[in-house]
Amino acid sequence: MSDKTQADEPANKDIAKKKAKPDLTFEEKVEQLVRFMQFEPLIRELDYQILVSCAERVGLSELEERIASWPAFKAATRDQHALITELVNHHGLELFELDEAGNPVLEADKAGLTENEVDDLVAGFAYRITAVGKEAAARLDPERRFRALLDDAPARRDAYLSIVGFLRDKHSFADVDVFLRGQAVAGLSREAGDGGVQPSVFVDKLERAGALFYDGGWQATEAGLKVAADATCAARA
């Protein structure tokens, strides 16, 4: 072998080969999407709402308008299109290219066309939740998360339910603080072995579970109210 040939050869041949990434299994895709959605609390609920709002195919403009109307979007760290694109990239949403009539543009429709002709053919975009997105949304369903919170901390159960009931109407945190102190939350915390927990901890736990949201004040979500109502009915039975 000549010196030139040796010089042209990489010392590590594996580096020279671009390895194809292995295909992810369905479960791996779901886990990847769930991790992504949980990574940033400020957009976690937005990502969930986007997924479940795309049960049927939705056009880009309509979807962007929906997202802008949600209270959680006020604290979002990126715009609507970026939020949507991230969910596409993480297997949660399927992207459709549409023609002027609103019909999906298939790869076969692009065959033989120039780049400009393809641009002329594609008039819009739409999105629909994937099977991976449906499974991730089911795992992050706020009703499921709130029930898990209640089951994991039975000594705090009454306090959590009281807060959600109080926040059927919007209140400031100061109002919540006064309400909780009147409900002897500190006593409940000591009984639970917490040594006394500040009201802010209860609010934070409920927000993370999808039972509360903030929009100029704290308020119970629909999921929070439903789980609270179910729990009350079960206690009476």
Model description:
The protein has 237 residues and is mostly helical. The protein is 59% helix and 8% strand. It contains 15 helices and five strands. The longest helix is centred in the last third of the chain and has 15 residues, at 222-236. The radius of gyration is 25 Å and the shape is elongated. It starts with a helix and ends with a helix.
Helix and strand arrangement:
Blueprint: H1 3-8, H2 13-16, H3 26-39, H4 41-53, E1 58-59, H5 60-69, H6 80-89, E2 93-98, H7 107-110, H8 115-121, E3 124-129, H9 131-139, H10 142-152, H11 157-166, H12 173-182, H13 185-191, H14 199-208, E4 212-214, E5 218-220, H15 222-236
Antiparallel strand pairs: 1-3, 2-3, 4-5
Question: What is the gist of this entry?
Answer:
The protein has 237 residues and is mainly alpha-helical.
Which short descriptors sum up this protein?
237 residues; three-stranded antiparallel beta sheet; two-stranded antiparallel sheet; 5 strands; disordered N terminus
Give the overall form: elongated
Structural class: mainly alpha
- Poorly predicted runs: 1-20
Q: Whole-Å distance between the termini?
A: 86 Å
Work out the helicity level.
55-70%
Major sheet description: 3 strands, antiparallel
Radius of gyration: 25 Å
Oligomer: single chain
Global mean pLDDT: 86
Q: How many separate helices?
A: 15
How is the largest sheet built, in terms of strand order? 1-3-2
Strand residues, percent:
5-15%
- The tally of beta strands, per DSSP, is 5
Sketch the topology as an H/E string, one letter per element: HHHHEHHEHHEHHHHHHEEH
